[in-house]
Amino acid sequence: MMTTQETFFTDRYPELGKGPVPVEPYISPEYYEREKEQIFKKTWLQIGRVEEIPNAGDFFVKELEVCDTEIIVVRNKQGEINAFHNVCAHRMNQIMYEKCGNTRKFFCKFHGWAYDLNGNLTGVPEEECFFDLDRKEYGLSQVSCEVWQGFVFVNMQRNPEQSLSEFMRPVFADIEGYPFDKLTCGFQWTSVVNCNWKLALDAFQEAYHVAYIHGKSIADAIDKGDGGSMRPLDAICGDLHRRLSLAGNQKSVYGNPKAVTSGGAAAAEALSESGGQRPIAAAALRAGMGSARHQFPLDALPEGVNWTKSKNWLFDINVIFPDFYVSLRPNYYQAYTFRPIAHNKILFEGRVYYPEMTTAGGRFFLEYMKVVLRDVLLEDMSTLERTQAAAETGAKRFMILQDSEILVRHGAHVVDRLLTEAQAA
């Protein structure tokens, strides 16, 4: 149990303060409009992974309501990934109606204008009837697009102030090399939720709630402190991004994720309690062991994964500013996006990436984990719309945060700092 201020993570970051955090940014339409203009339209935003478009001509379309646009992301014949606004140069019709697919060229269905995979205008019906038309001037409008560790990001700025690498590396350079490429999307969920994007993200970037909201699902899988809550192993707050490392109960299947791929002593420990208390979890683990196509030795993980080197490590929360959450385990990860639609509405997109399983037993293990993570996610989501409705009553003007909620405090601080700086400029 914490007894002195020296144990507080927040003491490392005095700029964050320790006082109450205003509620107004979570309920104000005006504040949200400022976020759109000064943050989302000027920041790298994650929109997918390279595995979604492995071949030349593969594309997907992503609506970005927070940026007032829709983006086409495509792999060209040279293997490069391009992004364009989904707008024809002729009379502004959307080029692609389909959400994903493969194409040799982009054709506007309105008047037949054609564009290649690099966005160049290559075909204009009755071109001789136009007035001094220069094809080079009327290609698709390009969107800045770069890739980090297989994640595709876009930036609405024509010339971003930072490269994607410069944006990511101050906090996440030491997780580069994590085996993202050995994992595949095992399952995913999408939902529109009536709450502010920061409020939704806040519910996932602290562990104070785990012993309570998850009391009937995974509370037995956490490494509890003296007070019964899940005290973080460590926290890191950067200029924009933030991280939290958490420990688990190694005698449980959920709390010991390495067991299914490591087997041996790790599996024996995971089964030592779950065999009696959670027989289905134990059966799933036994069925899944040895099924993964790839190996995931702990000593091969990058230095920044489980950076405290805890023997009870469960996972690391990585919040990539502004709205992308990546939870890294030794052999799987969760990727959640909390993309705003309005000041009190988000599009939640959640994907969980697991090793490819080569046996029926391995598939059974994945199905079991899908159900567990679904239930955990539903528990997390169960408070969001209620919290938003309560915040909008105006009954409370401030939130009171404790030290383990430092990522919540940091997130609010970063957004407000950026908006204040933009207003002063």
Describe this protein's structure.
- With 425 residues, this protein is α+β, with helices and mostly antiparallel strands.
- The chain has 2 domains: 45-163, Rieske Iron-sulfur Protein (3-layer Sandwich), CATH 2.102.10; 175-421, Naphthalene 1,2-dioxygenase Alpha Subunit, Chain A, domain 1.
- Helices cover 26% and strands 24% of the residues.
- The protein contains 11 helices and 19 strands.
- The protein has a 7-stranded antiparallel β-sheet, sandwiched between helices.
- Strand 3 and strand 4 (69-75) form a beta hairpin.
Helix and strand topology:
Layout: E1 21-22, H1 24-27, H2 29-40, E2 45-49, E3 58-64, E4 69-75, E5 81-85, E6 100-102, E7 106-107, E8 114-115, E9 121-123, E10 144-148, E11 151-155, H3 164-172, E12 183-193, H4 197-202, H5 210-213, E13 234-237, E14 242-247, H6 259-262, H7 264-277, H8 279-288, E15 313-320, E16 324-328, E17 333-342, E18 345-355, H9 360-381, H10 384-391, E19 398-399, H11 406-424
Antiparallel strand pairs: 1-19, 2-11, 3-4, 3-6, 4-5, 7-8, 8-9, 10-11, 12-18, 13-14, 14-15, 15-16, 16-17, 17-18
Helix pairs in contact: 2-11, 7-8, 8-9
InterPro entries: Rieske_2Fe-2S, Rieske_2Fe-2S_sf, Ring_hydroxy_dOase_asu_C_dom, Rng_hydr_dOase-A
Pfam families: Rieske (PF00355), Ring_hydroxyl_A (PF00848)
Family: Belongs to the bacterial ring-hydroxylating dioxygenase alpha subunit family.
